[in-house]
What does this fold into?
Amino acid sequence: MPIYPTPDSYANNFTAPQAPGWDTPPTPGVNPAPAEEGPSVLGAAFRQYNLMAGLFNPAPDFEEQEGYNPFTDPAETRGYEPWATAFSDSRSPQQTASIKQRIDGENQDRQFLAESGAPGVLASIAAGVVDPVTIASLFVPGAQGGLVARVASNAAIAAGGTAISELALHQQQYTRTAEESLFHTAAGAVLGGMLGAGSHLLSPEVRNAAQTEIADSLRNLNTGGSVGAMNVPATTLAQETMRGPKVVNKVMNMTPLGRTMDSPSVTVRRTVQQLAENNLTTAKNLEGIATPSAAETQVRMWAREEAASAITANDGFAKFRAQGGTGSKLDFAEEVGRAMRRNDTSPNAVVQETAKALRPILDNIRTEMQSLGILADNIKVTGALSYFPRMYRQGEVIARRDEFRKIITDWWARGSKASQEDLDIAADEVINKIIGAMRPQDYANAFSVKLPGAAKSRSLNVPDDLLEPYLESDVRFVMQRHIRDAAPNIELTRNFGDSSMERVLKDIRDEYTEMMRNNPADQVMLNKRMQRDETDIMAMRDRLLGTYKMPDNPSATFVRAGNVLRNMNYLTKLGGMTVSAVPDLARAVMVNGFAKTFSAYGKWLARSPAWKANKQEMRKMGTALDIVLSDRSRAIADIADGFSQRSALESGLDYATGKFGNLTLMNQWNSFHKSLNGMNTADLILSATKSNARLAKLGIDDNMAARIQQQFNKHGKTVDGLRIGNSSAWDDPAVRAAFESAVVKDVNNTIVTPGIGDTPLWSSSQMGKLVFQFKSFIFGSYNRATAGGIQAGDAQFYYGLAMQLMLGAMTYAIKNTIAGRDVDYAPEKLVLEGVDRSGVLGPLMEFNNTLEKVSAGTLGFGPALGTGTQSRYASRNAIGSILGPSFDSMGKLSDIATGILSGDFDDKAVNSTRQLIPGQNLFWIAPTLNKVEEQLK
It folds into this structure.
């Protein structure tokens, strides 16, 4: 089996663990009154920083109450959630009350010292100076000899002394965190090492003050140094605040991106910018501080590998046919897949050549995963001569389960002492894992089973050649799914250290714990906000991984029927999507202005060599590949690629949706405008000698701008007045990554491509996908175009907006003409249609249109202005306007059935039939179908 060996226990759900000690999820509440009023500054300092205070104030003994558990009644620990572990050893209500008093007293001491200013600092220093361990450490002899020896010795002594003191204080104080102790211990080591043998010349007071200052500095260091991650500056909450009117930004709170960027946690705000692609301008960008490159943008750049595999396979087939080969493209692709399991060898020279040409893509993925520690360096292929990702034809496994089981058990039975019954049970476990897999990665552990009598699970592999009838061999399909599965794991690990993001999730919890500790009155609100922020961050992570709200049983009829319905909706309802995209013309103006936009159009019209060179640049970056991948069309249609083809119908629909964007000309439109806008963005970046707010938003600060200039001067060229970076030849990988990521991000924001943070979380459920279909663009357009443009505040955004409204009105007129409906040229109607079609108000107009439809045209903007309902909902029924296009389609099926059963196939039934024909509203077919429909009525 050509998979990489995996651990016995293989977790794929990436669920963040709860804070230790939370045996029962506590309910937030209000702190009781503090046990002690008005502490003195010196007393508070000694209780916090001198272990003698704890020795002379031991905890009282309490009579144990049998069966008592402080977590049984949530009200008992309400308000003390950040210190839940403190109650784990409580054996009576009296002991619980005492612990709460201790916590209140410690919090009061901390707050009192913080508010005391200089006296508080001096008292803290004094308490630390006369700490017994501090005094004892002065008499510990250090190493003699050279500088290095003295530095190391004193650092060790200082660290050891501080660690002993911190350990004692940590045991005495419930509110003292491990982080505090770590920073103070590290500070002691740093100070001791810095002073070396000369430390005896300093008074204890001076040394303790210096150690406190170093601890504070260490605490404020940026901790985002994950593997391969961009070095994110330690910005403040104010610097991470979005620009623009609050009312505009608040609308984004319907989406996880908007909510997390409005979080009171600076860690959350930094994290979401590293995770989700966005078009937000923050206060830090005005200071020239760059927004980090998002993992989502980096994942999208893997489209170049995906496109390369598809193009290589297609070119190989063309050569195969030119040399007299017979068979379909699918037959050829499967032959290539089989060759890749056999060390890239085949009796056919073209098949072998194609397999060898695709091998570097798989090697590159493996190398990236090994460099980040996702895979071991010494990993070996098992089960085949060479690695080719194993993906199962789940439908075939389900249909021929007995035959598949027999292949497995027959192979296992060779030399095995296990009974046939035990082998059958183990084989069924394997089969259930296979048919229940939700993504390709889940297959990796399918054959890890535990036979009766065995101490633990082990991998009982079966060679690929035996299972080949049940394996996907279509090299195009397998390569695409493998890339889409591996890329998110790679980029999340690159940005956060691991794909579970566990480190940053802990940082978020720690920051909230600190906020709750410092703001007792706001604990309930902060606890709820922490939970919501964690939910949003993990949801966006899982959306990127493709696992968010995945069904427990992907084979369920409802799940598969929903996928079929959404694909059919795309084919029957979005034939006119290219006409609907006309307002995209204004997006270029809103971002780049009239002069640059129309200069780019001029280069295209003149067939300038700069245009051709730029197109190649964009494709190498992983953008403007829609003709091959249809990625934006499918994102707008809310169609997710399933990784397993289960039936001929599902396989055929998947293929049809991939090609439908070419029939609508939407893929050609997207590729063209992404190339055009990418050309302007790249030229802007390559011409900059220092950063500005826009470049900082794209991830480029002054230092990076200078490094990009160096690379451009070495490898780039100017063609017909346009700078071509030739970034694929750059010898500084970090600079290349920053430049290409900036271009791709700006292209996706200009030609709006919805992302993981742009839609409400409920829209990812199985029912939500049906209800929300075709609405992703509306939300994405608001987040990326409207809110992003207002935040940037450029003049070109506003005159581009006026152009977008005009083009929206023109789209209304064109679509009504194609559909055979009358066009209302009243100014108020054109303005309202322009607002709706442009997407400038995003979800607000979506709510309005639904209201107009369900109220039969009596409520909403249109009725208020006397212009009627919006044309975008003209073909939908009331149910469809609320519950989405799938229910609209089912309503039309009901109309057809009623007409057939009643014998009265009226105009409504005829129209419903027409609207369920795939491609019926393609702009080049619709006029003909209009005439046919009229004749049938």
